[in-house]
Amino acid sequence: MVFTTRFAPSPTGRLHLGHAFSALTAERAAREAGGRFLLRIEDIDPTRCKPEFEAGILEDLEWLGLSWETPVRRQSDHLGDYAAVLDRMQSDGLIYRCFLTRTEVAERIGQAPHGALEAYVGAPLPPDEEAQRLEAGDAFAWRLSLAAAQVRLGRQWDCMTFTEEGSGPDGETGALAVDPARGGDVVLARKDAQVAYHLACVHDDAAQGVTHVIRGQDLFEAVHVQRLLQALLNLPEPVYRHHRLITDETGRRLAKRDKDQTLKALRDSGVTPTEIRERLGL
Ligand code: GLU
Fold first, then answer.
1. Of 76, 132, 156, 269, which sits most exposed with the smallest number of CB within 10 A?
2. Which atom in ligand 1 lies closest to the alpha carbon of residue 42?
3. What is the DSSP string of 190-240?
């Protein structure tokens, strides 16, 4: 199997130094392994993703001196593929419609509405109530049923693992146990988007033959849900390499709101790609 990795940005803003580190780290790993480096545009959120940000991503990565295989996979071109997976999961009884709003979910799990809502575990509505809500045209999300997933996986549920060749935020590395319930009944398709991140991500990693998922430690926790989905969908298991996050002088993680740290702003102020690499310790 050819070593294959990817950089998978969402075009919701300009890339910053943290993205540059991720892309350069993945590309270097592919080069050192004589493998493939892919770019994937994760533009499934129709309200936040913009074509000009996608153009900006390509411009910034080219400026950094990176090259990748073409054609670039753009997730919005594959919505039918994700819908087919959801259809299959629906016939297998693995997902259910959830009509709750964010605030209602937050109330049910006793959390502030702005916190992470991931760990919610619910149940489908009784059929007549669900029929009424559908009739009324009420919006719903598709959630994974952990209960159904556990039945489906049987003994596998308790013994799933993943290989971490990098490290998690607390230094986790090596053969690690998957906690399949970690994400709760995770949303796989949102009210306003036809597919949510975890499902599109595992689908595409498999479709693109990704053997090594190289990305920031902010996504370390995502492995639990993603390994569960891989098991349920019979997808191959990639190796994970989570890397450190790039922070500013105060130790705070860079985010899209840090406008002065975007690659475009740095380039416009005369910083060179070599200086970027040096600054990132590469
Ligand atoms: N699109 C995700 C992000 O920009 C990255 C997904 C991944 O690498 O798995 O945070």
1. 269
2. 1
3. -SSSSS-HHHHHHHHHHHTT--EEEEEGGGTTHHHHHHHHHHHTT----EE
